[in-house]
């Protein structure tokens, strides 16, 4: 195996494989030698990625389910049908994504894929070095997606979005298969900002996810107990079978992740592509990759100037995180105020960092201002 490459992709998960796949398809890496290193061979369905969109995704062909309708339930069981305009909500199963991208990448002569544990990588004089447990490689560029918790300071907020999801099957399931529950607050709030997220997959099966935004994880059993309560008491199901399970933790933070460190380019969560206030990462990562590809096209290098998640949206995220952490304006109330007063398509655009000032104002006006004043100035000061 060669020891020198033009490009090394450290971590072949969602962002690493998306980048390699899309850069090769686009032609910008046609004449580059590429090494992708991941400690796992990605042969299991370890997560599902969901995202909304109002145009085609680069991974349209492997979308497993698509919904055009969304609803919201408040803590006091009020239901809202969300006006999502032309947005659809999509689900990609990771196993389909890994197969799709790896089949293509394995067929490319200039791509080598290796399952190794990366110990560290460095960047000296614009040459990168990657050290694994077995080998030492060099390259011009490294694209890194290996996450480690950042060195936080007092001023940063760091919440966790933690969730357990189960795919259940029941002949008595009575959900509208065209409609997802984007946020369903019909559950106790004693463990922090808590909601269910329900995606009907067929007439008899659905993904039910118990989700919290809080600073610490719960005991393992608590997730299962809460899921069972919701299925029994809210969905009114007595008999059902759990087909699959997923557990995840996504950082929700205003820590300013570094995109470029010399010739090392951080992508995915470690590159700052996880939206601080929502944990959604898939779409932001694809937008970053579009910028990297454009940059290779224009200048032969990956460097771009303007981040997709703008300074303005990062300031909103930081403020929102501080409000949620403070807990005076509880998450269920905040989201109920937002979704009952603003068109969901404006909120989705806001959460996608694509909102105009007038959409921002609509969202801001829907919330109780007194809770935001201090957190906003704190976030602004800390920028
Ligand atoms: C269960 C779950 C569900 C999620 N659902 C959604 C969703 O619906 N929508 C959304 O937008 N976001 C979602 N996210 C958030 C985010 O999209 C995912 O975490 C996404 O996988 C992040 O992409 P990434 O490339 O940054 O990291 P990953 O996809 O985790 O890729 C990092 C890769 O690095 C490899 N690696 C780590 N350490 C080493 C090492 N030392 N040596 C070699 N390889 C290493 C890992 O094996 C992994 O393949 C979810 C996250 C989880 C955990």
Keywords:
globular; FAD/NAD(P)-binding domain; 9 helices; single chain; 30% helix; Alpha-Beta Plaits; binds flavin-adenine dinucleotide; 18 strands; 3 domains; alpha/beta; 383 residues
Helix and strand topology:
Elements: E1 4-10, H1 14-26, E2 34-37, E3 48-53, E4 65-67, E5 69-73, E6 79-82, E7 88-93, H2 94-106, E8 111-114, E9 118-124, E10 127-132, E11 136-144, E12 158-169, E13 179-184, E14 193-202, E15 205-214, H3 220-234, E16 241-253, E17 260-261, E18 264-266, H4 282-299, H5 311-326, H6 331-341, H7 344-351, H8 357-365, H9 373-382
Parallel strand pairs: 1-2, 1-11, 2-8, 5-13, 11-18
Antiparallel strand pairs: 3-7, 4-7, 5-6, 9-10, 10-11, 12-15, 12-16, 13-14, 14-15, 17-18
Flavin-adenine dinucleotide is lined by residues 11-16, 37-40, 47-51, 117-118, 145-146, 246, 248, 250, 268-269, 280-282.
Describe this structure in words.
This protein folds into 3 domains: 4-47 and 92-150 and 256-299, 3-Layer(bba) Sandwich (FAD/NAD(P)-binding domain); 158-252, Alpha-Beta Plaits, CATH 3.30.70; 311-382. By secondary structure, the chain is an alpha/beta fold. The chain has helices at residues 14-26, 94-106, 220-234, 282-299, 311-326, 331-341, 344-351, 357-365, 373-382, and strands at 4-10, 34-37, 48-53, 65-67, 69-73, 79-82, 88-93, 111-114, 118-124, 127-132, 136-144, 158-169, 179-184, 193-202, 205-214, 241-253, 260-261, 264-266. The strands form 3 sheets. Strands 1, 2, 8, 9, 10, 11, 17 and 18 form an 8-stranded mixed β-sheet that branches. Flavin-adenine dinucleotide (FAD) is lined by residues 11-16, 37-40, 47-51, 117-118, 145-146, 246, 248, 250, 268-269, 280-282.
